[in-house]
């Protein structure tokens, strides 16, 4: 069993438009845009990162906004809900804020003893706010009071068929997660002594496989401290039979990827070097930052990429 994984590092999803996506995360949710860059493989598409003041691992939601992308279809084999942590008693504030702003899909519910508010993003993305004790400092913006502001991720909920659920549970245990509580068709797994974003829920469903598109989670990334620990994880996964990519430099972290038995794409990402490697912390997310191999395209990309306010 591995002991290098701290919990979630980031969650990456697909969107149909950059400015709408940016307005939702920085305006409606009050997160900080910590990086404005482009997709390594499709540089005519943004890669936008939102999180706390410095983009701490376990707080960062990232998006590839493909202009006009069709919506995905939910089903088995996907991360269906990304949940954020808010302080105890915060949900009344958020329910009113979301209702006033016309955010769809509002539903107050409870899971495993925690109150949560379900809601939808601009492309039908599945989200929840979960009330829990969380000592992380929030990014404060748009007049959102500190005592209700989002702290970072709480969990990711994988929706899987019976075979995928069983195999993915074994994978999570191998990765250092311990089985926690269950409620109905939901089983929770938790990294002990993790980074506050250390929960994965598996929801077992009988449904067709999801069809990825705008609003779908592309992959979830797990945090390790550094490249040495990442290589240890890579070797252990490969020794177990997983097909793992070589280490890839993503400028702000180093990444490896592999597909889970349930169909979800997992990434293991380093906490180093961080989002301030090419911008002062006070100005994170303001300038368009390009991977070195795409810097020669700057003038073209600045003309064609959708303008983003803020």
TrEMBL record:
Residues 7-132, 152-271 form the VOC domain. Signal peptide: none annotated. InterPro entries: Extradiol_RC_dioxygenase, Glyas_Bleomycin-R_OHBP_Dase, Glyas_Fos-R_dOase_dom, VOC_core. Gene3D superfamilies: 2,3-Dihydroxybiphenyl 1,2-Dioxygenase, domain 1 (3.10.180.10). This is VOC family protein. The lineage of its organism: Bacteria, Pseudomonadati, Pseudomonadota, Alphaproteobacteria, Rhodobacterales.
């Amino acid at each position: 069993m591995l002991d290098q994984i701290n919990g979630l590092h980031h969650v990456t999803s697909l969107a149909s438009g950059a400015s709408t996506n940016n307005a939702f995360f920085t305006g409606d949710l009050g997160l900080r845009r910590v990086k404005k860059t482009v997709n390594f493989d499709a540089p005519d598409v943004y890669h936008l990162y939102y999180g706390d003041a410095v983009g701490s691992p376990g707080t960062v939601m990232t998006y590839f906004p493909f202009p006009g992308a069709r919506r995905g279809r939910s089903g088995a084999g996907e991360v269906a809900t990304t949940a954020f942590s808010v302080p105890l008693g915060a949900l009344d504030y958020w329910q009113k804020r979301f209702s006033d702003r016309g955010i769809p899909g509002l539903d107050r519910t409870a899971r495993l003893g925690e109150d949560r508010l379900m809601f939808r993003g601009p492309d039908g993305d599945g989200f929840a706010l979960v009330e829990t004790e969380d000592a992380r400092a929030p990014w404060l913006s748009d007049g959102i009071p500190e005592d209700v502001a989002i702290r970072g991720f709480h969990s990711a909920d994988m929706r899987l068929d019976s075979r995928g659920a069983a195999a993915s549970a074994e994978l999570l245990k191998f990765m250092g997660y311990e089985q926690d509580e269950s409620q109905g068709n939901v089983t929770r797994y938790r990294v002990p002594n993790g980074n506050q974003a250390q929960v994965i829920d598996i929801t077992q469903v009988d449904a067709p496989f999801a069809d990825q598109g705008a609003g779908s989670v592309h992959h979830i990334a797990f945090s390790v401290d550094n490249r040495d620990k990442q290589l240890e994880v890579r070797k252990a996964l490969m020794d177990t039979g997983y097909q793992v990519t070589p280490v890839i430099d993503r400028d702000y972290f180093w990444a490896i990827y592999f597909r889970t038995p349930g169909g979800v794409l997992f990434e293991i990402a380093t906490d180093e070097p961080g989002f301030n490697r090419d911008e002062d912390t006070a100005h994170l997310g303001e300038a368009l930052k390009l991977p070195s191999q795409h810097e020669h395209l700057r003038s073209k990309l600045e003309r064609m990429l959708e303008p983003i306010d803020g």
